[in-house]
Design brief:
Length: 433
């Protein structure tokens, strides 16, 4: 079986869990005898291609001669979009970016036969233009490649998946790693929502990373439940080895690792930290990541008077993530809405007792992580204090957690996703495949 897969990022150059999930999944699919051609907007050449073939969209010549981007969308005839789509910025940053984008706009958007585009593969002010051009390139790729099914990851690649389906007639599977309701709460970006819903409507099958996300897809987007299938994420431990570190400080370390945005609940971590520090002084808190709430978080920490006990590392990747876990005594993921959440699995594999919110998809598969409501700061503080104060509790969480995450393998997830592919290709029920 051959799969044409569209994704926005792939290790080692990632901005979050999406790239990590794509990497683990493609390795699992290879073990299940599925051949994957992974198309990304900008490949650096240092991606691990041991289990997947990477195609750099920046190297692909378009096989269409279209005068404008708008003409392309009309010709495809499935979606109308605007150009100023900036989903990861605060309102203030959004306004500034739009002003700058208008100043920098080039009026000549001619898309000619044989032309190539140098995608940035980033999430900046030209994101919507890149999504559009990526879809155009996807149509060209679909004309040239041989494959059985199309697999598109998250909203950035849904237009590409639809374009490839229109050209090839092959079935489309979309993978929902997060929705606009997860990223923005009730203040959804209508353009992102429309792209997501159009992708869901066009898809032959939809994979969601949790039952939590599946319910959102069905109830908030109005999608037929029969074509929405949950396949939980996993974690890749191949090549993992325990990392020994030497601490320069005697205090316990409690870690938050993720984007510092509304979705991840950083403010609840900060408030809980303040409560813990009132009970004991032998602990330090680390917030590893970046995002639109970083400056606000720094100001709140200063206002609470705990700047000497609270550290901001910025975005971490690769070995630095593993090193951070090796330093940690407790890991916390207080997400407001987390479709899944791979980082708790990584923490538990690193022998770190873990606290997660009940509002996360990973809570569906973990029994040996402490679960709290994201908004219950008192419960979070109590859980942190308990893991620090009672070594027996911490030891049990470490031992049982390690046994649990070792069963969550990408090979197993890929086995079920292969069944979803067959279901999309045959039209049969997933459970019959």
């Amino acid at each position: 079986m051959k799969v044409l897969m569209f994704g926005w990022e792939f290790p080692p150059h990632i901005a979050g869990g999406l790239g990590t999930a794509c990497y683990g999944l493609t390795k699992g699919l290879a073990k299940n005898e599925v051949e994957v051609l992974f198309v990304m907007p900008h490949a650096s050449g240092d991606e691990d291609q041991s289990a997947v073939r990477i195609l750099n969209a920046s190297d692909v010549e378009t096989l269409s001669d279209i005068s404008t981007i708008e003409e392309f969308w009309k010709r495809i005839n499935f979606l109308e979009i605007g150009s100023n789509l900036l989903p990861y910025l605060s309102p203030e940053e959004f306004e500034k970016a739009i002003e700058q984008n208008l100043k920098d706009t080039v009026t000549d958007h001619n898309i000619g036969f044989g032309q190539k585009y140098k995608f940035s593969g980033k999430y900046g002010t030209t994101l919507m233009e890149e999504v559009t051009r990526y879809a155009l390139v996807a149509a060209s790729i679909a004309k040239l490649q041989t494959f059985d099914v199309i697999h598109a990851h998250d909203w950035l690649t849904y237009p590409a998946g639809i374009a490839a389906k229109k050209v090839s007639g092959k079935p489309l599977v979309i993978h929902v790693h997060a929705t606009e309701f997860d990223r923005s709460g009730e203040n959804v970006n209508q353009q992102v929502f429309d792209i997501e819903r159009n992708g869901m409507l066009a898809a032959d099958r939809i994979i969601t990373v949790s039952h939590l996300t599946r319910n959102i897809v069905i109830n908030r987007y109005g999608i037929d439940a029969e074509k929405v299938i949950t396949v939980h994420n996993a974690v890749d431990f191949q090549g993992y080895s325990a990392m020994e570190v030497q601490r320069g400080l005697p205090e316990k370390i409690v870690t938050f690792l993720g984007r510092i945005t509304y979705q991840k609940g950083p403010e609840y971590f900060i408030e809980a930290a303040s409560k813990v520090l009132k009970q004991r002084s032998d602990v330090r808190f680390v917030m590893a990541g970046s995002g639109d709430m970083l400056n606000r978080s720094i100001r709140r920490v200063a206002k609470l008077g705990m700047a000497t006990k609270f550290h901001f590392t910025g975005f971490l990747r690769g070995a630095d993530v593993q090193r951070m876990f090796a330093h940690s005594d407790v890991y916390v993921m207080p997400s407001v809405s987390e479709p899944f959440g791979i980082s708790p699995l990584e923490a538990m594999r690193s022998n770190v007792p873990t606290i997660i919110s009940k509002q996360s998809g990973v809570a569906e598969v973990l029994k040996h992580a402490i679960k709290i409501d994201f908004w219950d700061v008192n419960a979070l503080a109590d859980a942190i204090h308990a893991l620090l104060a009672y070594p027996a509790l911490s030891a049990m969480a470490i031992r049982c957690g390690l046994e649990e995450v070792n069963t969550l393998k990408w090979d197993n997830a890929a086995f079920y996703i292969k069944k979803v592919y067959k279901s999309a290709m045959t039209g049969k029920d997933y459970y019959q495949e």
